[in-house]
């Protein structure tokens, strides 16, 4: 018994020391927030929340996102605005289209997935105008005859939105033009393109078919890893942007047959374009639990595009969803954390593959927009304020120039993935590893320090 107690105490001390190291890296870098106002890899991927401005406690749109990948390191960059020479071409994946650059590009924050695999479908961007982009895999779609031009576009889609768009709508329109011209290289994906006024979800099929829908101002939406756009009104250009043949193409492929000839009122994009053989258990449990929090009761439709929340959604509500292992519900199989909640066999929102979690608190003046960012699992990591107006990334979070990061994004040197305790990523990784080793013993200690830092 004495040896077991010593072992448990040793683990807790290690956790406290590791968290203090992580906190010291954070505390030395940031001011306290005092302002009021190819194919997708086969992974269990991300979770995203968008809250319309009339459903938000801040009065502006809120965006929350968990980035789920594996075997990678996240690096942060502040990329400056730039002017470019006529004729400059942008190269992303070796087999993808080379895209002409525009004369002026905007500044942006970039959170990069540096990995041993080709990270074409990860990464978070938010530019100087407060246009943010995150994404979720929606693979597999049904498309097996994609139309691509010059190899199509993949990673470049999010980069070009960050470089060129001044509003979320402009970002969607830009993406639509690129998809029309080049076509998309992954089976299926959803891009959340958001600013302080509007939240859009763009759902893309391999090739040149896509649809984007605007989240109603008084509603909130949650997306795991399936298509969530259902009814599509091509005449409602204020709320939908789509490839012109999105419905007729589905008819031609036999994926949709109108109940009444000539009437498309029963067209459902998700049903038509999602592969009917995909295992959706992980998506069902995530969306059901997230919508339950927003509604204050179980949802009648676990695939709803958006819902009107019971009350205004604040930062703490979004944190709770992004940190959720379904505590207090029948979907929590951890037995009071006797089993690590990331390892119960039920896909949780905060999972063992969560590499980054963020909540964007948009503000009227873009420089004061705050990206609340947690490194790795948000259950073991504090949300730290990153202001859009910062001029550089602190040492420990970024150790490469943006040019070097982009040049090596698809060919990452092995050294960038090795353990370096002086880098923030590994400090937080140490905390997470200790928690995974003995979650029930140490999580309360971690949460106490985590919450104290967030309040400060």
From TrEMBL:
Q: Which reaction does it catalyse?
A: an L-aminoacyl-L-amino acid + H2O = 2 an L-alpha-amino acid
Q: Which domain of life is it from?
A: Bacteria
Q: Which InterPro entries match?
A: Peptidase_C69
Signal sequence coordinates: 1-31
Q: Name one GO molecular function term.
A: dipeptidase activity
A Pfam family it matches? Peptidase_C69
Record keywords, A-Z: Dipeptidase, Hydrolase, Protease, Signal
Q: Does the keyword Hydrolase apply?
A: yes
This entry's Enzyme Commission designation comes to: 3.4.-.-
Q: Which Gene3D superfamilies match?
A: Penicillin V Acylase, Chain A
Class of this enzyme: hydrolase
Q: Some GO term, biological process aspect, for this entry: which one?
A: proteolysis
> What is stated as this protein's family in its record?
Belongs to the peptidase C69 family.
Protein name (record): Dipeptidase
Species name: Candidatus Cryosericum septentrionale
Query: What are the leading ranks of the lineage?
Result: Bacteria, Pseudomonadati, Caldisericota/Cryosericota group, Candidatus Cryosericota, Candidatus Cryosericia
